[in-house]
Amino acid sequence: MNAMDLSNHFLIAMPSMHDPVFGGTVVYLCEHNERGALGIVINKPTEITIDSLLERLDLKLEIHALMGRPVMFGGPVQDDRGFVLHSPKGKFSSMLQITNEIAFTTSRDVLEALASGSGPERVLVSIGYAGWSPGQLEEEIGRNGWLTVAADPDVIFDMPIGERYVAAMKLLGIDPLMLVPQGGHA
């Protein structure tokens, strides 16, 4: 058993993190165990829209609410594949149910269901994911790279993308404007 299981938590990049990939991000952790961690960045939109992604897969989007919605940059790992966070409606061939409100699916059948209108109501589609090898995430947290807080599905699915970072910080009771980028020296 992993001493630190942060599945169903947000990782919030510290303001001091100037990493070009993860600076300013909120990552939803789908899985965290002795084999490492897997998460999806929820606040970095790509230029790709859900309808254009589905079109590339020869799927026609029937749901107008999803038209023009951006696909997220989920992370640098397998950034040629789609990953979907969604409300657990239906059973898909490679679905990991994380909570009663959030599931993670990597198989095409969830995109087919979305396109046809029979898919989950709440959805975040990403290209790529964020991955950490065993012990790597714990080390980054130990170096104050990330803040962690229990995830709120409303931040993932309902919050405007530009407000997700501040909303995740507020779950910790922190106003990000009050955080200083560097530690002080006496």
Structural overview:
The protein is of the alpha+beta class. The chain has one domain (9-178): VC0467-like (3-Layer(aba) Sandwich). Helices cover 19% and strands 32% of the residues. It is built from five helices and ten strands. It has helices spanning 50-56, 108-116, 136-142, 153-157, 164-171, and strands spanning 9-13, 26-33, 36-41, 45-49, 70-73, 77-86, 95-97, 103-105, 123-132, 146-150. Strands 1, 2, 3, 4, 5, 6, 7, 8, 9 and 10 form a ten-stranded mixed beta sheet that branches. Strand 7 and strand 8 form a beta hairpin. It starts with 8 loop residues before the first strand and ends in a 15-residue tail after the last helix. The model has no long low-confidence stretch (mean pLDDT 89). Pfam families: DUF179. This is UPF0301 protein NB640_03490.
